[in-house]
Design goal:
Number of strands: 4
Oligomer: single chain
Helix content: 55-70%
Number of helices: 17
Distance between the termini: 61 Å
Structural class: mainly alpha
Subcellular location: Membrane
Protein name: Methylamine utilisation protein MauE domain-containing protein
Number of domains: 2
Largest sheet: 4 strands, antiparallel
Shape: globular
Membrane topology: Multi-pass membrane protein
InterPro entries: Methylamine_util_MauE (IPR009908)
Strand content: 5-15%
Strand order of the largest sheet: 2-1-3-4
Radius of gyration: 23 Å
Transmembrane segments: 20-37, 49-72, 78-97, 109-132, 177-196, 203-223, 229-250
Order of helices and strands: HHHHHHHHHHHHHEHEHHEEH
Length: 412
């Protein structure tokens, strides 16, 4: 066997291991979040494009079953390229029909799957490496601000060290700040180390430490986030180990004809767009999750309030996610808890998508519901200050939704 053939076969084996790990993990997460994809409970959906058709009832279950079958064939290696293409197509259509389905792990599957389908093995692995490096660096950069230090970063630190009997509130402020900033700086360091060949194994070890720490913080002994989050972090550990734990040749001439296929061109264009656009996430060029602003505190926020005077008119489902009334008798409605209870995943964090949910709640009651929506913009990196917009009632919520570039109104 000559060197070129060996290199190509080596890359193919590594690609197959990545395909199996990605397919298996996505299958598990899809099954865990099945209510998100099947429209079984009437949970409002906010499509990316107004009027986008949606499969309802039995048709939604059949589409979801077809998606699972396509991923199962992909994972098993049965006509995997065609199966993966079909799975990517179904998943994309389902996401276009509901913004809340655009979960970070679904986005990652779409991008890595696109590379596996469209590019030769060695090149798919190279682009996959750049994808993970970009994810780590943008995730780290998204946390280098005042809001993370005061909010989520502090919560993460307290959760991480409390089982050890430590209390960060008693630490000197500089020490506490350094400990909080260690996480985003570690993420950026992981990305740099993974890119540089001489430090790649060190970067791999650091990435595994990072995800182990996240499992510690987010797991049942910490913040008790959903099982899907834990599966995703565990899967990323496996995928990073596959991508960076070995070094296939990246210029296998045996794939020269495949490399010239037209399908590789749009895949590369989409890939580089996905890598570059997160630079403008704070200025609205890209949403938080596709911008890799994961567990960042600066992202947009939406607060929904229902008036206590109409408590008896609300369904038990809505009542169960209302907090105690404040001094003005308004009760805050927890959108994320509602979504997790009904669908197993958090809501899409963009203001337009959450505004669509608030509009759907108000529309259920024909505009009679006393409902208030407060939209907070991105937090300033240095001061943490946000813009604030408040609207009261169904018509005001609809007018607010009209101001977004993408659709913010619920289907139906």
């Amino acid at each position: 066997m000559d060197l070129v053939a060996f290199a190509s076969n080596d890359a193919g084996r590594i690609r197959d291991r990545l395909r199996i790990a990605l397919g298996l993990a996505t299958l598990v997460m899809l099954v865990l979040s099945w209510p998100l994809w099947t429209n079984r409970d009437g949970f409002p959906r906010v499509p990316f494009v107004a009027g986008f058709p949606e499969l309802m009832g039995l048709a939604s279950f059949l589409a979801f079953a077809a998606l699972l079958a396509a991923l199962a064939f992909t994972t098993a290696g049965i006509a995997w390229r065609g199966s993966l293409t079909l799975g990517l197509g179904i998943l994309l259509v389902l996401i276009l029909g509901d913004q809340h389905r655009f979960q970070p792990w679904a986005y990652q599957f779409l991008m890595i799957g696109l590379l596996l389908v469209c590019l030769p093995p060695a090149h798919a692995l190279t682009y996959g490496r750049w994808w993970f490096a970009a994810l780590y660096v943008y995730s780290g950069l998204s946390k280098l601000d005042v809001s993370f230090c005061n909010e989520l970063g502090n919560l993460f630190l307290v959760t991480a060290v409390r089982p050890l009997g430590l209390e960060p509130a008693a630490w000197p402020a500089p020490a506490r700040m350094a400990a909080i900033l260690a996480m985003p700086l570690w993420e950026i360091g992981v990305a740099v180390a993974l890119i540089v060949p001489k430090t790649r194994r060190l970067g791999l070890a650091a990435a595994l430490v990072l995800h182990t720490a996240l499992l510690w913080i987010l797991g049942p002994w910490g913040l008790r986030h959903s099982t899907i989050v834990l599966v995703w972090n565990g899967a990323m550990m496996v995928e990073v180990a596959i991508l960076f734990g070995s070094t296939p040749a990246v210029s296998d001439e045996g794939d020269a004809s495949k490399r010239r296929r037209w399908v590789g061109i749009p895949a590369r264009v989409l890939f580089w767009a996905a890598v570059i656009l997160p630079l403008g996430e704070r200025w609205g060029w890209l949403d938080a999750w596709p911008g890799h602003a994961l567990y960042a505190s600066h992202v947009e926020r939406t607060e929904v309030f229902l008036h206590d005077a109409q408590w008896e008119e609300l369904t038990p489902e809505l009542q169960s996610h209302l907090q105690a009334p404040g001094p003005d008798s308004w009760r805050r409605f927890d959108l994320t808890a509602w979504s997790r209870a009904a669908r197993g995943v958090p809501v899409y964090p963009q203001g337009r998508a959450c505004n669509g949910l608030a509009e759907a709640i108000a529309a259920r009651y024909g505009g009679r519901l006393l409902i208030k929506v407060v939209q907070w913009g991105h937090a300033d990196r240095w001061t943490g200050r946000r813009s604030r917009v408040e609207c009261l009632g169904l018509e005001a919520i609809r007018r607010l939704g009209n101001g977004y570039r993408l659709n913010s109104h619920p289907a139906g």
